[in-house]
Amino acid sequence: MLGSGKKIVDHHARRRLLARRSIRKWSGLHNIRSSTGSILYIEDDQDTRELVTYVLAQENYKVVPADNYDDALLLARTNRFDLYLIDNWMTGGSGIDLCKKLREFNSRTPILFYSGAAYERDKQQAFAAGAQEYLVKPVENDELIATVTRVILEAKRTQLAMSARGAFSKLGIQTKTSSPGLEVSAKN
């Protein structure tokens, strides 16, 4: 299912991917470049969790995996992430329940569902719970990477604009909400 833009069709290919990951981990090569962003990835299927983690790590994302609701919630409460990547099904709760809980204490970190739950009502429930994006498994690696990157960048851009508006406001400078930039005009 995952690789560098190709689908893995056998266990030998999966083993090679995991072996390369292990070699990189132990050689320290995974720390050469600075991180593109940090992601809390909640997925109950171990193979999928490992492969998606590997694919995103190849793009220099720091991925912290969790396999159940309780671990994910603890990690989210005690760490700062640039993205929550959530499957809809997990031990201890649902992705929708987790999304709602995350929004109780964190409204800024974007949430991207990556799930096999493909019905339109699944997507609508995720958006109503506070998600920014929803991908139905499986997708090509390039689409997953592009969506993760876009969602993180959009959130950072929004947070930067909000910070700038706050700073301008303190200086008595009026700002107008506009897309994609920030219009600034001095108060008279």
Which tags fit this structure?
188 residues; alpha/beta; two-stranded antiparallel sheet; disordered N terminus
Structure report:
This protein has 188 residues and is of the alpha/beta class. It is 48% helix and 21% strand. Helix 3 (69-78) packs parallel to helix 4 (95-105). Mean pLDDT is 81; it is low at 1-9, 22-33 and 182-188.
Specify the biggest β-sheet.
Answer: 5 strands, parallel
- Uncertain residue segments: 1-9, 22-33, 182-188
Strand content: 15-25%
What's the overall geometry? globular
If you average the pLDDT, what whole number results?
Answer: 81
What's this entry about, in short?
The chain is α/β, with parallel strands linked by helices and 188 residues long. The chain has helices at residues 11-27, 46-58, 69-78, 95-105, 120-129, 141-170, and strands at 37-42, 61-66, 83-86, 89-90, 93-94, 111-115, 133-136, 173-177, 182-186. It has 6 helices and 9 strands, in the order αβαβαβββαβαβαββ.
Fold topology:
Elements (H helix, E strand, L loop, with lengths): L10 H17 L9 E6 L3 H13 L2 E6 L2 H10 L4 E4 L2 E2 L2 E2 H11 L5 E5 L4 H10 L3 E4 L4 H30 L2 E5 L4 E5 L2
